[in-house]
Q: What sequence folds into this?
């Protein structure tokens, strides 16, 4: 599905990675490991098209992603470093907006159910009043409504989560991969996802 | 696509509703700036009547610029801008929706309150219609042009001042047509020419600005 050819990226005159090539097929899981500042987030942003690499190319089903634009982003879910939720809106409002923007509107009932399975209270409290971990859960709840998107790009999905929520997220990723999706996630801690094909790229 | 645009408009209006102080400050700024002039230049009615269109338009320009820096900065800070860039709809459509929401929040209230300011300047009631119409046609152009500047200065230090330097010169044609149309009407001539030029500006800006904003956003988020 996703092919990466001779990718190179430098930040502040320091080469983060060069000559990075890999491909990711259906049912495959890729973990990007590395120390802080080794370029994990940068790599993920390049893969989803938010950043341009200094050299090399990312291709989705054979076509460079810069030509595809929305035809590529429609197929992916990217959850970045920041939870990407609006402080003044409730978790359910945030979730339905995110789903609509992704081209797959979710009904309020679906959103409510997704939030409940992530252990978030079914009230209209604004995100501002929630803890860091709860914000993260509110953002991750989108994964429950994103089975249609074949490619998941997750930046530190387990950060700020407690053990239960982290395990639940791991199960979600494992299920997605088992059903023929593909996922790339970054983490600096070992996380055990019981998936059939797990590969690791170590940056830095 | 339409659904995503409607969702963004609703989201931005909802956010403004949850934080009414943001809308209030821009509107209050407009009222205060427009009220300072009579205090500064004295209460000579003929003078006030003569400067009213220009003063009201300049105040509208400044007030619309005041809320521009927040247009993309808030979304940039909490990461929702990344999700907008990765949305399933063309970015131009989504930013057009954002600009529409910005105009509904910051431009439309000015149109509504302008006659009240005009009262302060003893502007003849016959001119209220022209004034409101010129603002109705002009303020969306201000939002559209301003959003290009807001997108270009996103994430820069001191972006607010730079934004003003970048955007204010581009506002000049709108200011000339807008204030000019009211002046024409005050002189007993038909303001139609100026208003039609304003409408033409609006059509051109609405057609091209969203794509310029989208390109600028992609550049400044790199």
A:
């Amino acid at each position: 599905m996703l092919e990466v050819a001779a990718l190179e990226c430098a930040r502040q005159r320091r080469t983060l990675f060069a000559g990075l090539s890999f491909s990711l097929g259906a049912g495959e899981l890729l973990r990007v490991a590395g120390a802080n500042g080794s370029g994990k987030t940068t790599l993920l942003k390049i893969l989803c098209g938010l950043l341009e690499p200094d050299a090399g190319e990312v291709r989705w089903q054979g076509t460079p992603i810069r030509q595809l634009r929305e035809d590529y982003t429609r197929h992916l879910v990217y959850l970045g470093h920041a939870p990407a939720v609006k402080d003044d809106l409730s978790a359910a409002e945030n979730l339905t907006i995110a789903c609509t923007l992704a081209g797959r509107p979710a009904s309020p009932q679906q959103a409510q159910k997704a939030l409940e399975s992530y252990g978030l209270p079914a009230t209209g409290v604004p995100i501002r009043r929630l803890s860091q971990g709860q914000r993260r859960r509110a953002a991750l709840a989108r994964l429950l409504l994103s089975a249609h998107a074949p490619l998941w790009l997750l930046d530190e999905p387990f950060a700020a989560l407690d053990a239960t929520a982290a395990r639940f997220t791991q199960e979600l990723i494992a299920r997605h991969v088992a059903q023929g999706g593909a996922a790339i996630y970054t983490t600096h801690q070992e996380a055990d996802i019981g998936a059939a094909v797990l590969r690791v790229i170590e940056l830095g | 696509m339409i659904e995503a645009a409607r969702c963004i408009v609703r989201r931005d209006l909802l956010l403004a509703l949850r934080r009414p102080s943001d809308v209030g400050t821009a509107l209050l700024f407009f009222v205060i700036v427009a009220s300072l002039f009579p205090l500064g230049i004295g209460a000579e009615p003929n003078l006030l009547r003569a400067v009213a269109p220009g003063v009201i338009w300049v105040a509208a320009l400044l007030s619309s610029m005041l809320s521009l820096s927040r247009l993309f900065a808030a979304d940039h800070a909490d990461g929702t801008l990344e999700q907008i860039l990765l949305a399933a709809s063309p970015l131009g459509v989504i930013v057009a929706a954002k600009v529409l929401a910005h105009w509904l929040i910051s431009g439309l209230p000015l149109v509504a309150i302008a006659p009240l300011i005009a009262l302060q300047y003893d502007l003849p009631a016959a001119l209220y219609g022209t004034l409101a119409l010129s603002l109705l046609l002009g303020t969306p152009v201000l939002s559209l042009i301003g959003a290009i500047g807001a997108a270009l200065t996103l994430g820069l230090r001191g972006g607010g001042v730079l934004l003003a330097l970048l955007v204010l010169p581009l506002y000049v044609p709108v200011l000339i047509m807008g204030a000019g149309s009211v002046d024409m009407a005050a002189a007993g001539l038909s303001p139609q020419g100026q208003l039609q030029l304003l409408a033409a500006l609006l059509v051109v800006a609405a057609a091209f600005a969203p794509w310029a904003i989208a390109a600028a956003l992609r550049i400044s988020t790199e």
Q: What stands out?
A: Chain B is about 85% helix and 0% strand.
